[in-house]
Amino acid sequence: MASPAARAACTVLTGARVVLPTGTVDGARVIVDENGRITGALPDGHDDRDGLNHTDRIDGIDRIDLTGHWLVPGFVDLHNHGGGGASFTSGSVADVLHGVRTHRAHGTTTLVASLVTGEPAFLAQRAGLLSELVEQGDLAGIHFEGPFISPCRKGAHSAELLRHPDPAEVRKLIDAARGTAAMMTLAPELPGGLDSVRLLVEHGVLAAVGHTDATYEQTVEAVDAGARVATHLFNAMPSLGHREPGPVAALLEDERVTVELINDGTHLHPAALELAFHRAGPGRVAFITDAMDAAGYGDGRYQLGPLAVDVKDGVARLVEGGSIAGSTLTLDTAFRRAATVDRLPVEDIVDAVSATPARLLGVYDRVGSLEPGKDADAVVLDADFRLKGVLHKGDWVLDPRSAG
Questions:
Q1: Which helix (H) or strand (E) holds 97?
Q2: Which residue of 3, 171, 183, 382 lies most exposed, with the fewest beta carbons within 10 A?
Q3: Is 326 marked as binding a ligand?
């Protein structure tokens, strides 16, 4: 990936169909200042009395015509284990940064690093390493997916390393993250589950229900205790039944819960995705990748924690047992599938891939929409929703003028 070009005193993006919080505007202008912040986002030719038109008098303006393209906010991924051949669970700092850059080149400008199940001491050590990258702005937080999950729904997690969610152990991981823990996935039906949910809430960490064998009633209890996220809804939990609705119904019906969806065509049938959007709405759906290190890298043999994974034709499965082992998805692919296969409104997709996860993480004041005062994080897509440009804090990661 090429190094970002020198930043202009002012960048003016014109001509695109721009998705703003108020709706889609054809031919809008988005203005980015030399500090990498958005200073204006209005229809072209709008009489801006607050200074948008002053760009006509600035030297060093970089004007970019995006006619025929979409301009949307940078993507926000709540749940990501790695990419570009690098694992967030086992890689060095350089590896983690490579994984972050890989996803950034696919439009994910804000990313939470997810850890898979491991020994508590190992997870604490990894949290310490990742917390430094959160503090310097490369990551948006840390997500602990395990070890406090159900052996009945372990998916691609090592059964030998699973544990009950003891609040004391949960607290140690929170402390190890030094204020950067964003989320923890756990099975609330296990001993200590509800107390751990309450502890997470007390410390400002999102409690997520996932890899769970909980009943409908147990899931309702967890949400009432403070759980606010459904980890990759439908996957690694009991199926929706007409007599035993299980966690899927409880998580979909509660307006307090945001549901993660992996829109890669493997994890979800299109009808399941449509059901989730119909019931929860875009304001409660967050597209995630659940990516492992093969994302943006290719087929082959990989490790996910201690488990061997084979990736074939872009689908990751455990060598032993054949369970799906995360994904090789990037969010630009999820966006395009949502637009071209699922036929969702573009504004709803933008909510699911940017605004909703940003709000959930508590960073919507900085990212998640194209509004004055926010970081200049943006994605350029062509008319067929193929990625053509990525802007991160005012710097081009992928310049649409050089994209093929």
A1: helix 93-104
A2: 3
A3: yes
